[in-house]
Amino acid sequence: MTVLRSGSASDVGLVRSSNQDLALATSSLFAVADGMGGHAGGEVASRLAIEELSAAFGRQPTGSGLAEAVTSANAMVWAHSQENADLRGMGTTLTAVALVDEGGRDVLALVNVGDSRSYRYHDGELTQITNDHSLAEEMVLNGELTPAEAAFHPHRHILTRALGVSPDVKVDVWRIRPIRGDRFLLCSDGLTNELGNNQLIEVLSTVADPQAAADLFVRAARTHGGSDNITAVVVDVIVGEEDTRSIPAVMAVSPEFVDPTGVASNGVAELQPLAVPEIRIPNRRERRKAKRRERRRDRGRRLITLRTLLFVILFVAIVGAGYFSVRWYNTNSYFVGLNGNELVIYQGRIGGFLWYHPVEAQRTGVTTADVGPTYLPALQSGVEESTIGNARTYVKNLVSDYRSTHSPPSMLPPASSTTTTTAPGAGAGGT
Ligand code: MN
Question: Which value, in Å, is the radius of gyration of the alpha carbons in the chain?
Fold first, then answer.
């Protein structure tokens, strides 16, 4: 037999104008919902969720019944948000624990969607059972953040999962042995944002009455700032199992916690021990350090991705453009010059440009004796041509120009005499 005793408290806090949190504490079902959404959306969402959870669980008070109750609570909130334009986009977190009978054995079924939390206080140790469905927590799971950094990450309030924001919802489920003396704390983020683990432990270890403990949690969170709605439900196992360490107390049946080798039957996977990471909430100094480190990293990351990258691209572009311009300027020009007394076509600029020196593109076989002396000064300093073809034409023209004007007198007689003089010889040779 298991006997539970509970206490609950919820408060608007010191900053918000309305309380969108809602707590539930019956004899066997305990829950915390933290609503969100404009207008009255947040309040409506948490109220609808708790009411439907309670009603659906009442119809089927089992472990799987609790998980299904969360699913129908999701459908309820979703349906209302679709029907009412004012409520569109509303949603809520929901964490709940219920005492159920499974095969004649008392079990505590625990469910969670969102970033409200359920803790187990056992033997002086506080363990967070639920995982926050927040961006920051996912970064922790991916190894991008330490739990200490996540506690103060700017993205810690951005939820990756919530109830009522889509037709379907994925529910995390655990089964826990009700061990005598264990205390469970269900709370909204308004409590855990204000109080660290040590402060939670302080209350749980000193205030025996669950209602007094819940009240003290709320008062302490208000004292520490109360920047959000604050809700706490404390559930004590007054009569329960004895602590036997050979059997793990917390077991997960949620798909994502199931060992892939675990055999699933009739939709419920085999029970698996849950590895719950120890989360230590940092003190004020560590918090400031983590924040500074985070800011630095953010700044650094932005620099690398934007400014530095742009600068590198620009730098490479400018250097590249310069290099290719110089290269183009040098290789796309030719000139005719002299190497000794031979005319040579060079590729490049006369006298060179920057690191480029003219190179021999073609030796012409033409010497200074083949061209007019008037061209020699020009050839000595070099005559630019845009292409190698133009350079060849230039040399050819120099040669033919010089021949036409300075060719020695023809040794041949006039055309008429040619015929007469060769004819007898040819005729003589032919006969
Ligand atoms: Mn909240």
Answer: 46
Q: DSSP characters for 335-367?
A: EEEEETTEEEEEES-TT-BTTB--EEEEEEEEE
Per residue in 268-313, pLDDT tens? 333 333 333 333 445 566 667 766 665 554 444 444 556 677 888 8
Residues 342 and 385: their CA atoms lie apart, in Å, by 18
Better pLDDT: 279 or 13: 13
Structure tokens at 92: 């809520």
CA of 198 to the centre of ligand 1 (A): 21
Token pair in block for residue 365 = 């076989």
Which of these, 152, 47, 66, 154, lies nearest to 107 by C-alpha position? 66
**For 114-166, where are the alpha helices, taking DSSP H only?**
135-141, 147-150
Ligand 1 centroid from CA 229, angstroms = 6
Q: Which helix (H) or strand (E) holds 35?
A: strand 29-36
Q: Say if pTM beats, i.e. exceeds, 0.90.
A: no
Distance, CA 6 to ligand 1 centroid (Å)?
Answer: 22
In 3-state terms, what secondary structure has residue 46? helix
CA of 64 to the centre of ligand 1 (A): 27
* Distance from the alpha carbon of residue 268 to the mean position of ligand 1, in angstroms: 32
**Can you tell me the mean pLDDT for 125-136?**
92
Which conformational region is residue 225 in: left (phi greater than 0), alpha (psi within -120 to 50 degrees), or beta? left
CA–CA distances in Å: residue 87 to residues 41, 54, 345: 5, 22, 85
- Residues with Cβ < 8 Å from 186, sequence gap 6 or more? 23, 30, 31, 32, 95, 96, 97, 116, 117, 118, 119, 232, 233, 235
CA distances from 132 to 136, 158, 230, 340 (A): 8, 10, 17, 87
The strand ranges marked E within 271-419 are 272-273, 334-339, 342-347, 359-367, 383-385
Q: How far apart are CA 129 and CA 88, in angstroms?
A: 31
Residue list, CB under 5 A from ion ligand 1: 34, 188-190, 228
Residue 383 CB partners (closer than 8 Å, separation 6+) = 335, 336, 337, 394
What's the 186 CA to ligand 1 centre distance in angstroms? 13
Question: How many CB atoms lie under 10 A from the CB of residue 227?
Answer: 15
